[in-house]
Write a structure and sequence with these properties.
Layout: E1 14-18, H1 22-34, E2 38-42, H2 45-57, E3 64-68, H3 77-87, E4 93-97, H4 104-107, E5 115-118, H5 123-134
Parallel strand pairs: 1-2, 1-3, 3-4, 4-5
Helix pairs in contact: 2-3
Length: about 140
């Protein structure tokens, strides 16, 4: 999928990215926008939920959400996922984590996530995870 696939700004898939590290948010946005995704950033769960809710109210919903599992001092991926799914039970959410040994690795679906993206991730891994999320089975 090239960036020209989503060249019309009104029809680009919208992705919400939550990560507590500004550098990761910025790099992730740059990578996603390179592939034509309209990307919105959030620093923690509260901000992600607010942006998700606002997008619904504006009838501009997100097609995918990427949540960092651990947000020091804030709401992390599990609780954020639960609260987003309460707003939209069909939300497509990926969890991103640097904890490769955690229980989430093999049980992410029981928490409502549709995918997992281990950190650090490469651009190809991010692209595939997001494309699989918004176009399952393609």
């Amino acid at each position: 999928m090239s960036s020209s696939t989503f060249s019309d700004p009104d029809h680009r898939p919208r992705i919400l990215v939550m990560d507590d590290e500004e550098q990761i948010r910025d790099i992730t946005r740059a990578m996603l926008e390179k592939f034509g995704f309209d990307t919105t950033l959030a620093e923690d769960g509260e901000e992600a939920i607010e942006k998700f809710r606002n997008a619904q109210e504006e009838d501009r919903p997100f097609q995918g959400v990427l949540l960092d599992l651990t947000i020091p001092g804030g709401m992390g991926g599990k609780e954020t996922c639960e609260r987003i799914l309460a707003l939209d039970p069909h939300a497509s959410i990926i969890v991103s984590s640097g904890d490769s040994e955690g229980s989430l690795k093999n049980e992410f679906t029981k928490y409502g996530f549709k995918g997992i993206l281990p950190k650090p991730y490469r651009i190809a891994d991010l692209k595939k995870a997001v494309e699989d999320l918004i176009h399952p089975g393609d």
